[in-house]
Amino acid sequence: ISNNRLPNGGFGWLVVAGCALSNVFNQSLISIFGLLFGEFLSNELGQGTSGAALVMNLCSVCLNFSGLITGSIIKKLSVRKTAILGSILTGSGLILCSISQSFWQILVFYGVFVGLGFGLINPSSFIAVNSYFTTKKGQAVGLALAGTGLGQMVMPNLVSFLLNEYGFRGTVLIMGGLALNGVVGALLYQPVKWHMKNYKADSTNSIDEAEKASLLSKKKKIIDMIEDSEVAKKSVFKRIARAMDLKLLKSFTFLNIIIGLAFAYSASISFSMLFPYFLQNTAHLSKTDTALCMSILAGADLTSRLILPTITDRFKFSSRSIFLVAAIFLVIARSTLAETRSRLSLLVVSCFYGFVRAATIVNQNLTIAEYCNCEKRQTMLPNALGLNMVAKGFFVITLGQLLGWIRDKTGNYSLCLHAQNILLVIVIVMWTPEILYKKFLVSTLLSQSLVKYFEHVNTVN
């Protein structure tokens, strides 16, 4: 009798390629918003920095709070259809921006359409990649996210060239067309069941296994019938709670994970916004040297996404442990940056920062997937990712504003970098005791099991 198992490669690498293609033309758009829309907003619509910030904040809110519905959409439509819908929303939002005549239209077409598009693409792409791999998940996710890093390196130069050649409207129209390449990438997100590997089971147990499968199938049908009848009697709130897997929020471990990830995400977003200003206003670097620092950081980030997951997968480190160690190194790197003024030193530390930052980016969703890896929680992954997005959205709005307020009140960029580190230190303090306790518990249970085993062997002998 043949059974099925995950490919752990095979067609999964084409899924990774599709995800990388989508990331090149979609996820990288966030980093070029100011370059693409800045002049148009200020010169034609009379909107300064506050207007640009409003569009980006609305986009971020729609991206993260779409997590409330993303899980249900993925379960209803499938991963591939959800990613296609997200790419169409992103592409059409940009295309509509090219014919916009007022600020509210930019708010709707970019803030809402593009934000929702990103919110659908992110989790569906991750689930598509995650579903194909067992021991190579880190490597696969790293390669997929390398598309974002590549886009962040290439897109600024491409956008600058297009703006000079075709102006704002022509450039946004072209970028909208390029974003629709995400549809091509999403078409590769074939269901993993189409590519499951067959292997022969032990023939002596084949009849028992078949009988068990039949009984389990019947049992599942009966349970589903009972549950369906119970659901009909439940309140609307309970139906929503069940559809969104809100029982995940009862788990201390899950809450600890998503709050920690949200703190780290808020610090990362704040750093990305303030780093260029820190280099120019505090370190007094020229625009050329500032761009060089940012390019080196992005290059190190991309290199790390390609190399580091291969190493960590080989040694089978947990995603959460890797994230925690990377967070410790990020604190060191960011503190060093905050107190560094030398051009050469800033280039070196930026390189180190980019390398360790990639470890946190790659392992964000992998940490959630790792928690949902047990059999009873596997179907909860879409909603778990959605709840994580909502948590990130909430903390970005609150903590992000607080970090901005610190900068405005003090005028000190170095102090703001240290404030970002406080968020990471909180994550380290929250996670370390739980991880150590669980490792101690596992080792204790293992030693007890070994003692019982040897006692049993001695009794038999």
Automatic annotation (TrEMBL):
Family matches, as InterPro entries: MFS (IPR011701), MFS_dom (IPR020846), MFS_trans_sf (IPR036259), Proton-linked_MCT (IPR050327)
Main location: membrane
Keywords tagged on the record: Membrane, Transmembrane, Transmembrane helix
Location within or outside the cell: Membrane
Record-annotated membrane-spanning stretches: 12-37, 49-70, 82-101, 107-129, 141-162, 168-189, 252-279, 320-338, 344-363, 384-406, 412-431
Topological relation to the membrane, as annotated: Multi-pass membrane protein
GO cellular component terms attached to this protein's record: membrane
The keyword Membrane is assigned to this record: yes
Domain Major facilitator superfamily (MFS) profile: 12-436
GO molecular-function terms, A-Z: monocarboxylic acid transmembrane transporter activity
Protein name stated in the entry: Putative transmembrane transport
Native species: Corethrella appendiculata
Phylogenetic classification of the source organism: Eukaryota, Metazoa, Ecdysozoa, Arthropoda, Hexapoda
